[in-house]
């Protein structure tokens, strides 16, 4: 049964005279607002704010919060995006007044605990990356890509200004070419071979004296660790280029191998993927980067440095590309990441990856019998199934399956990515899920593949909205109340 009850906007709930607060009688002489504020600061008419009671407000937002799926309410096997459970202790710790009440304009001497925490974050990420220098400033993975490419561009301006080309495999995340373009570099696509790995001949053909960077996601977006990585880094380095490692898939290799050890010169981390900080929904995030010695002088300012027993912000970095984010980055997110890293420790982080890979292989082994997995029988932390056979035989698309999963209480996997697999369904269970959850998901997926086209074409049947026009919703979102609507 579809939940027909639409949620009204607060403006639609508004009734004149309702209010949520009762202020005490004013006990000082009242003065008109115009006497207290300059004329340009005073509105011509009162704002048309909703007039509602406190229970109206609470119910409105609590009901709204329940309309979304989240990793706290449902299994969320979104490939590439690593939707692992966010431990609640990290929320509790990050909201302690010792962190939450700090102000970035406080003198450094009174921020020593926070600076020490950030310094440890730099050190731990450097160790995990196998790269010596870290900036915590970028506010998302994509922002980390952009920042690292800025450092590479600045490095080449100093050393080899003709290098402006960024080579990117055809299965890469869309942010890779976007970051290259935003950094003023030119993105050039490198093909994948039939096994879904980098086509070395195509890479060789495109490497030349204008190549600045080769960006690679490894494990790649098919969930396969590219075993040619040694050859790839050798080729790129011999051609004078640098290797960028897109760290979105670090959840598969923590403590097992290090990007710096397999040839990467720079990388980003996605704390909201790998280190269990909340996915921001557009809110504050973090995308720290780690770089090699050559690029270190170009990192954003400031960096936290240790001096004797104390810590300070180093602004004296003449080659730095400057700031990419105000203050110290999104510290609240970094505190959660710090808690996660310290909770697990080195041994625990390796177990995270081992269990993520185990869970993904278990699910792959169950799913491949009814949804083919073109890459084969083994994967890292995620795998890509395809429903192209179902599409040909029963006109059931990946979108139909994804929509129908919502009726079974599961968030859909990533669909139609990577682009090189038709009717792709990219499944990543993460290490935080139990065998029972994986079994229930595999069974739901199997049942759906047996269902009729008519049932699936109208799915989901149990959500408030079924199949919105996604383009219209993105282009003309109705976010605010207006009298005409
Ligand atoms: C998520 C992702 C990104 C972008 O990271 P954000 O933190 O979402 O900006 C880049 N590359 C890959 C492969 C990803 O999965």
The count of strands amounts to: 12
Per CATH, the superfamily of the largest domain is Type I PLP-dependent aspartate aminotransferase-like (Major domain)
CATH topology grouping of the largest domain: Aspartate Aminotransferase, domain 2
CATH architecture of the largest domain: 3-Layer(aba) Sandwich
State the end-to-end distance. 28 Å
Please give the count of helices: 17
The shape is: globular
Kindly provide the name of the CATH class of the largest domain.
Alpha Beta
Strand order of the largest sheet: 1-7-6-5-4-2-3
Bound ligand species: pyridoxal-5'-phosphate
For the sheet with most strands, the description reads: 7 strands, mixed
**H/E element string?**
HHHHHHEHEHEHEHEEHEEEHEHHEEHHH
What is the alpha-carbon Rg in Å? 26 Å
Kindly report the average pLDDT value: 93
The helix content is: 25-40%
Structural class: alpha/beta
Task: Give the SSE layout.
Elements: H1 10-13, H2 33-36, H3 54-65, H4 88-94, H5 97-100, H6 112-129, E1 133-135, H7 141-159, E2 165-169, H8 175-182, E3 186-190, H9 200-206, E4 211-217, H10 229-238, E5 242-246, E6 266-268, H11 271-274, E7 289-291, E8 303-307, E9 310-314, H12 331-367, E10 383-386, H13 388-394, H14 398-407, E11 414-415, E12 424-427, H15 435-450, H16 453-457, H17 470-475
Parallel strand pairs: 2-3, 2-4, 4-5, 5-6
Antiparallel strand pairs: 1-7, 6-7, 8-9, 10-12, 11-12
The site of pyridoxal-5'-phosphate (PLP) has 14 residues, from helix 7.
